[in-house]
């Protein structure tokens, strides 16, 4: 069976930076608290006329430009996001039109911080089954559109961005193993309550600020630490990977303390952990492809990567990838 290899990477972050110093002017917080509790120094914020499909299309355009990909050859577009431009049409449809992928079909899927991983798992199946030759997998979120900038416990964490990878069939390299799970126990600890069919938008939902992300940070933190460690260990065991075999751990960027605890649990030093939370904060579905874009020059074909994410739902996923892309060709 063919494997789904990542053969191209693209990314986009908005120009505007929201620094810890800016946040000190907005809520009762400090640069020191944010840096020591989360590892974040600044995040990017979309422009007023910029939505998730715009950022995702920019990431896809970079991927296309750098690798000479013909947009018309893309078969499908799978988008992980919790901040689509609107409930429908799907972000995938808007991206298709913006990048001229005239022969592609596609759809969005909702798995919060695990969104890119679920999209990767789904896209990989289309390649492995032989149904498609080129699948564009996107993780993109405009978190600033659902953040309450008066809530210091959440507004310091999140940022906006988009990342995209292209999957193509390969005999040797690619997604070797991927697992995912969900558990809705205590889902209220991380959610957005209004704007769906249970609580459609009304003056009351607006007045009660139900259209923003709410999080009970401490229990989510504990759960993230234990699940990320468990599934990272699991995927390494199944792949017979010792710590020295792993070129990079590629963790969802929610909190540097969660990331270092995950790395510690499998004996990986931080030099072999992809980290950019200091510059982008938590961009939800975009964190993992943004990491891949940042570190791609450092990767060589055959490198073992372990990807891991945990987020709202609750959702989680871990994968073992044998890297195929050398920045030029497969
Ligand atoms: O991506 C999806 C999954 N999400 C996550 O994985 C996020 C998980 N949670 C976290 O990353 C952390 O829980 C936070 C960064 C959100 C919070 O850090 P914490 O160390 O768990 O702090 P805490 O919520 O236990 O709060 C400790 C103190 C509290 O004050 P008291 O009650 O001790 O007086 C908070 O009110 O810190 C206070 N606090 C702040 N102080 C300054 C909370 N937010 C802030 C803030 N600035 N921005």
Describe what is shown at a glance.
By secondary structure, the protein is an alpha/beta fold.
Number of spatially distinct domains: 2
CATH class of the largest domain, anyone? Answer: Alpha Beta
CATH architecture of the largest domain: 3-Layer(aba) Sandwich
CATH topology call of the largest domain: Peroxisomal Thiolase, Chain A, domain 1
> How far apart are the first and last residues' alpha carbons, in Å?
18 Å
Describe what this molecule looks like in 3D:
- With 330 residues, the protein is of the alpha/beta class.
- It folds into two domains: 3-172, Thiolase/Chalcone synthase (Peroxisomal Thiolase, Chain A, domain 1), CATH 3.40.47.10; 177-271 and 293-323, Peroxisomal Thiolase, Chain A, domain 1 (3-Layer(aba) Sandwich).
- It has helices spanning 20-26, 31-38, 52-67, 91-99, 115-128, 152-155, 203-207, 217-238, 256-265, 277-280, 287-295; strands spanning 3-12, 16-19, 42-45, 76-80, 105-109, 135-142, 160-170, 174-182, 190-191, 214-215, 248-251, 304-311, 315-322.
- Strands 1-7-6-4-5 form a five-stranded mixed sheet, sandwiched between helices.
- Strand 4 (76-80), helix 4 (91-99) and strand 5 form a beta-alpha-beta unit.
- It is globular.
- The structure holds oxa(dethia)-CoA.
- The site of oxa(dethia)-CoA has 18 residues, from helix 2, helix 6 and helix 8.
